[in-house]
Amino acid sequence: MANTLSGRFLMLTVIFVMLAEVFIFVPSIARFREEYLLARLERAQIASLALLATDGMIDDDLEYELLENAEVLNVVLRRDAVRQLILSTDGMEPITATFDLRDASAWELIRDASIRLFETDEQNIRVIGEPVRQAGLLIEVTMETAPLRMAMIDYGLRVLLLSAMISIFTALLLFVAVRILMVNPIKRVVGAMMSYAEAPDDANRIITPRGSVRELRDAEEALQSMQTQLTSLLRQRERLAQLGEAVAKISHDLRNMLSVATLVADRLELSSDPTVKRIAPKLINSLSRAINLTEATLAFGRAEEPAPKLDRVTLEPLVDDVLDNDNLAQGDGEVSYDADIEPGMVVRADPEQLHRVLSNLVRNARQAITATGKPGEVTVRGFEHEGGWCIEVIDTGPGLPKGSEQGLFKPFSSTDKVGGSGLGLAICAEILRGHGGQLKLLGTGPEGTTFALFLPGGMAA
Q1: Are residues 27 and 109 in the same domain?
Q2: Which end of the chain is less enclosed by CB atoms within 10 A, N or C?
């Protein structure tokens, strides 16, 4: 029960109500003490008036009975500027403290009550007050503290018992209210989420907002919107998966047909007809590009990028390895390479996947420069970025074709590169998303192209 919302709410309610009662208890016990002392003063005044009515002609037994009924040891009454000892007890212990109730402040009453509550020694105290109905100037009595302390303890226990009953009753009422107004609706939402999770493609399991509390209804409406969108995306994904499976089958059969056509085209090159000899190489190149496209489509359909194994990667040696490999691949080309990495820069990434992304971007940059027939340069820069790191791949090539920025990172997008399938940048972008980062085109034009890899910060920082 302690781990449930309603159970914790019940315990907190009891605790808070008891704390509130504690703050109320201290002034109330002080007020009880004041009324107790005032009552003894009033009783003592009545006893003194009975004595004055007989002109002091009473025996000792009656005087003792009057003092016992008033619960005091002696009574002093000041009338007409004369201070008179009206009633007294023989053999009284010395007085240890005097309390004047005529002008006592609330703080003094609370302080004296707290001291008396925790003082266990029996003492005699003097209490001074004003007589009721102006029957004199003042009245003072001497009394024992033991009965006062016992009465305060009894009153305190009754107050605490009543406070406990009130807190428990209040907590139970709030417990029932919370169960009805909050816990049950939340359980209904949780149940709807669990039911939807069992079959997210079933639109009948989408939650219907019914909450009467505004915040809860807002949450239900947000959940309904999310479930609706997710169901739609799942259906779209299922249709795309079916379409992809059909495309894969078609590509597989088409590749076989194109392979046969290529064999036939190779035979055409042996023909002595000048026109056939001129057309055959173009036909073979077109068939080769078609075969490459079908194979790339099949490979992309089978590709499932594994989750990155994030680790601390020192960037400089990894970039040097990428540039050295691409330099060997170009042979006697005129493309130069440069690395500008902050010394000791460490990023949080999967080293193999990051190597693939950089190799792809560097290879694309080199091929773009080579296509111009002019020398150029490929530069890889690495530096810390806000909240992570940035790696830029910069080339001095001719730039991307106009309008190719749209859908640049989508599969099979047009690249105008001979033999290209339009899948390289899409795979690179997918790998970066798996790292929680992003691949962006920062700029392109006649002066060159710049791609940027943004990696989020983490434990490597």
Answers
A1: yes
A2: N
Boundary-marking domain end, from 142, 168, 194: 168
Measured in whole angstroms, how far is the alpha carbon of residue 13 from the centre of its chain?
24
Answer yes or no: is pLDDT of 52 > 80.
Answer: no
Domain span at 160? 5-168
* E-strand stretches of 28-94: 74-79, 82-87
Q: Are residues 22 and 163 in the same domain?
A: yes
Q: Report the CATH number that the domain containing residue 256 is assigned in CATH.
A: 1.10.287
Tallying the residues shown for the chain, one arrives at: 461
Query: Would residue 200 count as lying in a domain?
Result: no
Question: CA-to-CA distance for 224 and 204, rounded, in angstroms?
Answer: 11
pLDDT for residue 449: 93
CA distance 220 to 193: 10
Report the domain count for the chain: 3
Closest Cα to residue 378, out of 314, 421, 333? Answer: 333
Q: What is the pLDDT of residue 305?
A: 59
Q: Which long-range contacts (CB under 8 A, 24 or more apart) does 221-230 make?
A: 223/189, 223/192, 223/193, 227/196, 227/200, 228/203, 230/200
Q: What is the pLDDT of residues 124-136, one digit of tens each?
A: 899 988 887 665 6
For the question of whether the overall pTM of this predicted structure is more than 0.70, the answer is no
